[in-house]
Amino acid sequence: MKSLQELPSLHESDLVSILKNEDLQMNELEILGTAQNSTVPESLEEWSDENFITLKVTLQKCLPLIHYFHISNSDVMYKIKSYKKILNKKIWNDLKKLLILPDQSVESIIFLSKLVVKQELPTRIIELFSTIINGEHTAMILSQMNFDK
Predict the structure, then answer these.
(1) Is residue 127 part of a domain?
(2) Cys bridge to 94: 52, 59, 65, 106, which one at CB 3.0-4.6 A?
(3) What is the spatial distance between Cα 9 and Cα 141, in angstroms, rounded to a whole number?
């Protein structure tokens, strides 16, 4: 898979395919930052309405695939809020509602959370190589050997 720095150069269909992958091991929020057009200012505070429209058009097929309701409250306030101009109004209102009234239902579709793949090393199996001596005996014998010769 391409690195995050290469995502802006992906075709929209490739990006949609990546987002549809249920075991995606990438923070979906990074898509908002990495799919920016190179012609827009780096700082969001400097963006014009036209810059947001450009980003919305660029991500129009991707935005509905983001699992918004599995994003932490702090990420909603400090990351998603900056992009509220490109979000569906219903989704933004439901996100705000969940922040204020987390026990209330929302109208938007809530996707199941993505699978998190944990890579674990296989359990090491230590087989006994002798029935006459044990590990302590082996350590004692090895400590007495002179390996400098």
Answers:
(1) no
(2) 106
(3) 61
Q: Per-residue pLDDT tens for 100-134?
A: 888 888 888 776 665 555 667 777 776 766 778 88
Q: Is the pLDDT of residue 8 over 60?
A: no
Range(s) of the domain holding residue 89? 4-100
Residue 138 sits at the vertex; the CA angle it makes with 132 and 144, to the nearest 5 degrees, is: 130
- Note whether residue 135 is domain-resident: no
| Phi, psi torsion values for 54, nearest 5 degrees | -60, -45
Residue 130: predicted pLDDT: 74
Please list, in sequence order, all residues whose beta carbon lies within 8 angstroms of the beta carbon of residue 29, skipping any fewer than 6 positions away: 66, 71, 75, 79, 80
Please give the Cα distance from 10 to 142 (Å, whole number).
58
